[in-house]
Amino acid sequence: MYPEQFASRILEQEALGFLQRLEQMKPFSLQMPMVKAASVSSESHTAIERHIAARQHEIKQRIQRYLNWLLGPGQNASPAEAQRRLRFIRLRFNSILSQFDIFSDALTQRCEHENGIWLAGLDVLASDALDLPGHKFEHPSIITYLDRGFGAAIRRVRTRLPGGSDNPVAIIRVPRERMVGNGIGSSLVHEVGHQGSAILNLIHSVSNDLQQKEAKARSTLSKKTWRLWRLWISEILADFWSVGRLGVSSTLGLIGVVSLPRPFVFRFNPSDPHPPPYLRVQLSCAMGNILFPHPQWKALARLWKSFYSKKGLGINQRTFFALQESTIKPFVQLITDHQPSTLDGKSLREAMSVEHRQPVVLQKTYVSWQKQPRLMRQAPPTLVFAVLGQAKIDGRISAKKESQILTKLLKHWAHTRSIQETVNVHKNPTKYPNSILTTH
Questions:
Q1: Which has the closest alpha carbon to 58: 104, 16, 93?
Q2: Could you say which DSSP state residue 276 is in?
Q3: What is the C-alpha to C-alpha distance for residues 394 and 338, in angstroms, rounded to an integer?
Q4: Taking the model in full, what pTM does it have?
Q5: Which residue spans within 90-229 are E strands per DSSP?
Q6: Which sequence spans correspond to the domains of the chain?
Q7: What secondary structure does DSSP assign to 194-207, as a single string?
Q8: Segment 174-216, tens digit of pLDDT
């Protein structure tokens, strides 16, 4: 047998093996046993199934074209050329498997007892957190999943997946150690804030304002201060979104996340997009004080500083933190008053509709819910988290009671969504097609 013929036979079988493994990638709807309430939204499910089906179709076509070439014109090619072409197909094939695994990791947990329904409830919370009252914008589907660690993370919609494809849904990873308590809302809505900032192009527009501040600064140190705020603006805007939607619940949750050993709280890393935790909590308190004026914010800031005194820091560290702290108020005011073109002239403060999250309003709402618990079940999820967070800092609710309430409400939100989607399917079957029929 000639070397070319031997190579052709080996490579043909390898390509056919790719096709066989693709056939084993079944739609998620055929392999995910879960109760209806634990399912992701119909929009998310359809978007994921269509995305994976399109990638499968694409790679199958590539493989088929390769086989046609290999058994036709490729018979005259060298073994090295034939192997080179298949090598690129293998890379693409593996990237599709990586994409499949990303969604599989997020969806498989929906089969876990309790966790699956809690995650569906968190999907509803995330969707509500992305809405800005009185402002309509493109609303991507969001799904959540649990993972180890202390912090949350997001893979935003239309960001690059392995292989270069656009992500069809936003995927938020939330830490298991935060389930189930009010702190999960802070972490989750922070990640939603990253998605909201991207949709509204806030990072670019706020960065322009900060560049102007830097240019007008008179001293080198002052210029550096504003340059650092710009370096951290992505994470700061996500924190602002969380405070704006959840009130003090956001700051309490943040304190729970960044209460780390002292060296980590004061550590400054120029390549880290997060501000040092020591500054980050103060920023959160300053945001809250501007959006929802109340003595609780200054009390929280003092409490945080009592946890982590600057005594013992070197002179350079003390100078660094003093300079940044001196500009916290004007910096936060700049964000609050910022009017991006994407909000049709509204400031970020106005877009957050802060009148519904004022401490006095939240306190009155909690009292009314104590008398009529059904009102809590009818309220938007972000309002529930805001009210419970306010009740927590006021000492009106225990951690145990808070967890019990949120556990019930996460189930309620998941169940309500599943019922509503069933109704929607019957009313408009073309909008919620069966993913198996439409993608395979």
A1: 93
A2: P
A3: 31
A4: 0.86
A5: 142-147, 153-155, 170-175
A6: 3-99, 200-355
A7: HHHHHHTTHHHHHH
A8: 887 666 666 789 999 999 999 999 999 999 999 999 999 999 9
